[in-house]
Specification:
mainly alpha, Tetracycline Repressor, domain 2, globular, 9 helices, 188 residues
Length: 188
């Protein structure tokens, strides 16, 4: 019989918390079983496999990130909205490194649950970029540029890749300001 209070959603939530502590790729069913106080085989009553658990964490993390970005950008537009989304993205990635790692991969073809979670987060970026008149292919290019720059910065920062004495927050602000200039410039 499953432990009281343990269900698929609780297992995914506990897995997400554990992934933040040990790393998404280091997450294992054994570690999670120990965390929730059951034997490893008992977890399989709530999740089919480690891959299924990771999928659940990915969907949860994309939803959480989307909600965070939506709150940060509410009522903002233009450069202010880009700064807000960038700051929220960076802060969320630092606070939730395991979850953040789970958000990187695009949904598999036919995975409607993951696609919805991804699209909800993507829509926040699209809404911000619409304020720059960016739509369709230009918006996709801009989202890829913005996401790549933010991902690169937070990845380097989390790995201790900024060893120079200058203020990292200032450098991040410079990155975002540079992106905003690019968003305002028509490359044609």
């Amino acid at each position: 019989m499953p432990r009281a209070g343990l269900n698929p959603a609780a297992v995914v939530a506990a897995g997400a918390d554990l992934a933040d502590e040990v790393g998404f790729t280091e997450l294992s069913m054994g570690l999670l079983a120990e965390r929730v106080g059951v034997r490893t085989p008992s977890l399989y009553k709530h999740t089919a496999s480690l891959d299924a658990l990771r999928h659940g964490i990915s969907v949860l993390a994309k939803r959480e990130l989307g909600h965070t970005l939506a709150r940060a950008t509410a009522g903002r537009s233009g450069g202010d909205a880009v700064h807000a989304i960038a700051d929220a993205y960076r802060r969320w990635a630092a606070d939730h490194p395991g979850r953040y790692a789970a958000t990187i991969r695009a949904p598999a073809a036919g995975d409607e649950e993951d696609q919805r979670a991804s699209n909800d987060a993507l829509q926040i970026f699209l809404d911000v970029l619409a304020g720059f008149g960016l739509r369709d292919a230009r918006a996709v290019d801009a989202i890829r540029t913005l996401r790549s720059a933010l991902h690169g910065f937070v990845t380097l920062e989390s790995a201790g890749g900024f060893g120079l004495p200058q203020d990292v927050d200032r450098s991040f602000g410079y990155l975002v300001d540079t992106l905003i200039v690019g968003l305002r410039t028509d490359p044609s």
